[in-house]
Design brief:
66 residues, alpha+beta, Arc Repressor Mutant, subunit A, two-stranded antiparallel ribbon
Length: 66
């Protein structure tokens, strides 16, 4: 895992370690409740860093650690 990740970014990737999840499911798994407001920004940064990928299945967007 990239050592340049923030604590919140690592928390999101940890939630995605074992299964692909929707954004709502990620929020239910992360430990930091204050992350609710910043989750999408964090996910955008992780995508830019190349460690988060997404896809659509049955009209839901799923995310996974790449």
């Amino acid at each position: 895992m990239n050592t340049m990740l923030t604590t919140n970014e690592k928390s999101v990737l940890l939630a995605l370690k074992e299964e692909h999840l929707t954004s709502f499911q990620i929020l239910n798994k992360v430990d930091n409740i204050s992350m609710i407001l910043s989750l999408y920004t964090i996910m955008d940064k992780l995508t830019t860093k190349g460690v988060l990928k997404s896809y659509f299945k049955e009209n839901k967007k799923y995310h996974y650690a790449a």
